[in-house]
Amino acid sequence: MAAYLHKECKLRLFCTDIPPTSIIITFHNEARSTLLRTIRSILNRTPMHLIQEIILVDDFSNDPDDCKLLINLPKVKCLRNTERQGLVRSRIRGASIAQGYTLTFLDSHCEVNKDWLQPLLHRVNEDSTRVVCPVIDIIHLDTFNYIESASELRGGFDWSLHFQWEQLTPKQKAQRLDITDPIRTPIISGGLFVIQKSWFNHLGKYDTEMDIWGGENFEISFRVWMCGGSLEIIPCSRVGHVFRKKHPYVFPDGNANTYIKNTKRTAEVWMDEYKQYYYAAQPFALDRPFGNIESRVKLRKNLHCESFKWYLEKVYPELRIPKDASIQKGKIRQRQKCLETKKETNHEIPKLTLSPCIKPKGEDASAQQWTMTGSRIEHVASHLCLDMDMFGEGAEVDREIVVNPCESSLMSQHWDIVSS
Ligand code: UD2
Ligand code: MN
């Protein structure tokens, strides 16, 4: 592991006379080796007086010993959920027993770098409304090597509420006088951050109705900015993280349903009239259940938070507002027959067929429901888009209308309505 710190960080003085922090790590079926690497790196690379405790929350992993055996290490405490709660409720549980002045959240597959903690605690100690993140380096998925990532990045997103890393614009770069200066970020990636404990509680912790994984980073980011705080990435603090290609755990209600539920709650509570752009990008969300949001709406009111318009203007003016957010819903008909999808065994992607538009009682009508937003036609039930596959070459090309995973950059998924 190389240090990768800007040499300028050595010249910056970070206060070390800071109250200790509670480190909170939740996990569900994490490999023991990566969990141990996370904790060992913390114990090796952090001044002990800055750690109040390391609270592990075992989110009902298959083997209870994963957590239990680790309490033999210094500072480590272990809580185990009696049923799967998801990362939001697990983090809140960890925070509820924390005794430190600040809370430091980490994922369970990290390696903290040298001097990672002081720069974070220093910033929060100066101003308790700041919520701060390290630069996230990459732990290679196959080799587990520690790889430096670009440090002039910030968090951004599109209207479908998917997180993405963004390069700073030349203007934003020019505004930074020193490469060690904090980078203000519209959104945090979600896993690794420090927040002052009473500020976390005052702001309403997290939305406890969010399940398993996903979306909570949008909710906490909008809330922090709109209710009087700020989000920063601190270039002098670096932590490695294993970015995985797919989730190594199951979602009891399905991956897409859970993500939609969590992001829909965020859009409904925080995005005001701008939620229409979320629904245009994610029409699948329109009919999905999302539970009761009353207490979160009330929280927003009690905290006297700014509007989403304010957030877009002041925090994320780079997010372009789409010209067309109209959504059309309905069937695609040819005479008496309607376009629908049919799932075949052994095939992940369903096939397209035409079948009678009027369905016998008891048969699922949602197979014929489509939405059109902009130039994309999406199948409501499967969340797939109307597309064209091509086979062969030159004059021999065969074309077939199919459904495929939606991708707005694909021209083969662009359609127009032409009135005849
Ligand atoms: C990112 C965040 C992650 C979280 C997520 C959005 C980083 C580095 N990671 O995805 O923290 O904000 O976006 O939700 O920014 N876990 C549980 N119970 C569960 C599921 C997960 O405890 O039911 C744990 C899991 O073991 C891990 C943490 O929650 O320690 C985050 O999950 P992840 O690593 O799968 O999320 P990631 O890094 O893809
Ligand atoms: Mn992770």
From TrEMBL:
Q: What is its EC number?
A: 2.4.1.-
Locate the coiled-coil region(s) and give their ranges: none
Write the record's keywords in alphabetical order, separated by commas: Disulfide bond, Glycosyltransferase, Golgi apparatus, Lectin, Manganese, Membrane, Signal-anchor, Transferase, Transmembrane, Transmembrane helix
**Where does the protein end up?**
Golgi apparatus membrane
Residues crossing the lipid bilayer are: none
Domain Glycosyltransferase 2-like: from-to ranges: 22-203
What is the name listed in the Swiss-Prot or TrEMBL entry for this protein? Polypeptide N-acetylgalactosaminyltransferase
Name the source organism. Echinops telfairi (Lesser hedgehog tenrec)
Q: What is the lineage of its organism?
A: Eukaryota, Metazoa, Chordata, Craniata, Vertebrata
